[in-house]
Amino acid sequence: MKQIKKTFLLFILMATFLTACYGNDIPQVFDSGTAESITGTGLATATASTEKDAKPKGDASAATQGNTDAHQSVASPIKPGQLLKTHFLDVGQADCILVELPNNEKMLIDAGNNEDKDTILGYLDSQGIKKLDYVIATHPHEDHIGSLDEVIKKYDVGSIYMPKVSSNTKSFEDVLTTIKNKGLKVKAPESGSYLFNINNTENKLIARFLAPNKSKYEDVNNYSIVLKITFGNTSMLFMGDAGALSESEIINAGYDIKSNLIKIGHHGSAYSSSDNFIKLVQPQYAIISVGKNNDYGHPAQSTINRLQNAGIKIYRTDELGSIIAVSDGNTITIDEKVSPIKEQAPPAVSKQSASDSNQDIIVFVTKTGTKYHADGCRSLSKSKIPIKLSEAKAKGYTPCKICNPPQ
Ligand SMILES: [Zn+2]
Ligand SMILES: [Zn+2]
């Protein structure tokens, strides 16, 4: 018995030592039952419970400590001139947001529908992403976790955050299986806790969870993880699909929600972005991630009116394609034109498509995909079936947004 105790103590000592040395490079240590030993050091930790139940105790303690780095991996300094760059990917009626932090860490908030796999992986590749330090699945609806399994399979992943709610869909099961197979664990954030918190005289980089504030909701959307990222004097608020109920809970919790930019909740639904909430956020910019002519009637005209009446500039992915917001710590600028994905933009080769001979060009499709590709497109790594352009179109394949094949 004594021997076991000794071994255990040694293990904890080693784990603490390794953690101090390598930080987030060894998430296994955080997640293998040593959470208790490092709770209170301000490190983000997870308990050894099941994936769905894991809870970052360290985050809560960090939250009360204020200035402590809640996450060890955010020890990397922010060099002058670094930017916070947030990409709202055009994934149709869904959400997928890539956040490039000014300390070079990367975060992904949601991962579109199942069918957005090529779009999302292609986009992340085009941005040179190799590792996602933080993956946040706001809630288990398919339009938020659809391609998450593929993302987790492909890239190195630091920590994964999900609310404590499950779903009996295949998409959700796929995500959990992938997480398990990769030896990762899920953390359920506590409202008010910090994902990271660098706050000193030179710079300020903070990510704080503002919701969910309760453990039971009727509407799955209200389980949405809401995150506020602050960089210098600017901040961005990411609402997932949170509705008016969650918004009022956030207000009641007394958080500082004022933000320059808000990713509007629930694709601009009428039941999100309540007047009260928007008045307190006081954003300059509102981003709506929404599909053209979607079945839900999103965004609701009433929401658009509320935002416009408050003098907020609205940017919609169904109108602009992907949208990039860049903060230098003082100002946020919106770039609508840098995205390689342009669903609504005129096709780059529209002139060619006038000629019939163009339709005999050979393009490529995959066994399971719905898109056709130009030769050499990275989406063709698994299967590559040659097909005439005219035939591909007749069969209902649409051009890949990444490689931009002839149309
Ligand atoms: Zn949604
Ligand atoms: Zn939803």
Key terms for this structure?
7-stranded mixed sheet; 2 domains; 8-stranded mixed sheet; binds zinc ion; 407 residues
Summary of the model, kept short:
With 407 residues, the chain is α/β, with parallel strands linked by helices. The protein has two domains: 256 residues, Ribonuclease Z/Hydroxyacylglutathione hydrolase-like (Metallo-beta-lactamase, Chain A); 48 residues, no CATH class.
Side-by-side strand order of the widest sheet: 6-5-4-3-2-1-14-15
CATH fold-level name of the largest domain? Metallo-beta-lactamase, Chain A
Give a quick account of the main beta sheet: strands, pairing sense, barrel closure. Answer: 8 strands, mixed
Query: Approximately what portion of the residues adopt beta-strand conformation?
Result: 15-25%
Name the CATH homologous superfamily of the largest domain: Ribonuclease Z/Hydroxyacylglutathione hydrolase-like
Unique ligands: zinc ion
CATH class of the largest domain: Alpha Beta
CATH architecture of the largest domain: 4-Layer Sandwich
Q: Structurally, how many domains make up the residues?
A: 2
Give the CA-based shape: globular
CA-atom Rg in angstroms: 22 Å
Number of strands: 19
Query: How far apart are the termini?
Result: 72 Å
User: Could you name the ranges where pLDDT drops below 50 across 5 or more consecutive residues?
Assistant: 12-75, 340-357
Count of DSSP H/I helices: 13
Percent helix range: 25-40%
Mean pLDDT: 80
